[in-house]
Amino acid sequence: MVNILLEGYDIDAPWLRGDLRPYIRPSDRVAVVAFSFRDNRVKTAGDWDRLYGRENGMYYGGITGGFAAYGIQESQITFLDYFRDTKESAGEKVERADILYFLGGLPDRMLDRIEEFSLTDALLRHRGVVMGYSAGAVIQLGEYHLSPDEDYPEFAYYRGLPYLEGFYLEVHYEGTEVQKDAVRRVLAERGKPVYATALGAGALLAEDGKVRALGKVERFGG
Questions:
Q1: Quick one: average pLDDT of 193-207?
Q2: Phi, psi angle pair for 26, to nearest 5°
Q3: Is the full-model pTM beyond 0.85?
Q4: Which residue, 11, 16, 1, is CA-closest to 213?
């Protein structure tokens, strides 16, 4: 299995494309797990469409355009729709996919919705590529931490999907004191290394248990 942990959905960025091209093939089918939205912003199918819908979705063009750079057509990309999919249809989308793509937003709410749709086992059975940015990166860890920000005012640990173990991830790293404090706390309390991916410029690629840094990444501990 290959796991790709990203900063954003600009997967066609020049600093990433060469490293990702061997793993994102023109024939691949992609299932986009669009379950990480904020409850106060998305309450209806129309709200969801304004973020991810094909017609006017804020993120749709960026997501599909990123994959287009690797030769993947829109017809090969399907979005898991919280408001319209059933447990069965969502599960079928996961089962058919070569690539699972977890979006940014709220990782804990994404896991809540994954469990609501009974998708955990299907996601963990996947043996292709698993990738995601921001929230979609940290959720690939069995346990992850979040340093305080506007969505999460207090440091805490959270349960993720146990694709990866043995390290923690500090996303959007700018070397702020808040982030440094969070890294130090994880090192002291968990005793495992922390990778810090620079804001918009770093990523991790994990293959067969080996982690490789792409772009600007700092490793603390270990």
A1: 98
A2: -55, -25
A3: yes
A4: 16
